[in-house]
Write a structure and sequence with these properties.
Layout: E1 2-5, E2 18-20, H1 23-33, E3 36-38, H2 41-72, E4 77-81, E5 88-93, H3 95-104, E6 114-116, E7 121-123, E8 125-132, E9 138-147
Parallel strand pairs: 4-9
Antiparallel strand pairs: 1-2, 1-3, 5-7, 6-8, 8-9
């Protein structure tokens, strides 16, 4: 029996896969649990249309992310932190401060989409962070920590 998976099923397949499974497995487990639907001609047409629309939306999101990446290319962020006389930071600088500084520059980026190469930044200096704008679009942003 041919089925279309509605969600990921371990050891079977991923969402939107079209698979052939045994009749009993499909009728007694996958379809009643809502993991799959029967792959009739109508369901296959609907499935193809959904994939086409999703691909179009994904392309638009990617284009807007690339446009945002072009705007962000020349940005340099400076973060002020309280430090000791030797340049050690009291506490650490993390993605929250980076997201706030990007927000001040007009780029609303969620802190979860920012990753710093060095886990904990405890000293004054220049560093780099990776901002994920889309699944396929990432940009490196240099930033500098200065003493307040």
């Amino acid at each position: 029996m041919e089925i279309i998976l509605k969600q990921d099923v371990p050891n079977l397949g991923h969402k939107d896969d079209i698979l052939t499974v045994k009749n009993g497995y499909a009728r007694n487990y996958l379809i009643p649990k809502g993991f799959a639907i029967n792959a009739t001609k109508t369901n296959l047409k609907v499935h193809e249309e959904n994939l086409r629309q999703r691909a179009h939306k994904e392309e638009q999101l990617k284009d807007s992310a690339l446009e945002l990446a072009e705007k962000m290319k020349g940005i340099k962020i400076i973060i002020g932190a309280k430090t000791s006389t030797k340049g050690k930071i009291f506490g650490s600088v993390n993605t929250i401060q980076l997201a706030e500084e990007l927000g001040k520059n007009g780029f609303e980026i969620d802190r979860k989409d920012i990753s710093i190469k060095d886990d904990l930044i405890k000293e004054v200096g220049s560093y780099s962070a990776t901002v994920r704008l889309h699944r396929e679009v990432r940009i490196e942003i240099p930033f500098e920590i200065v003493s307040e």
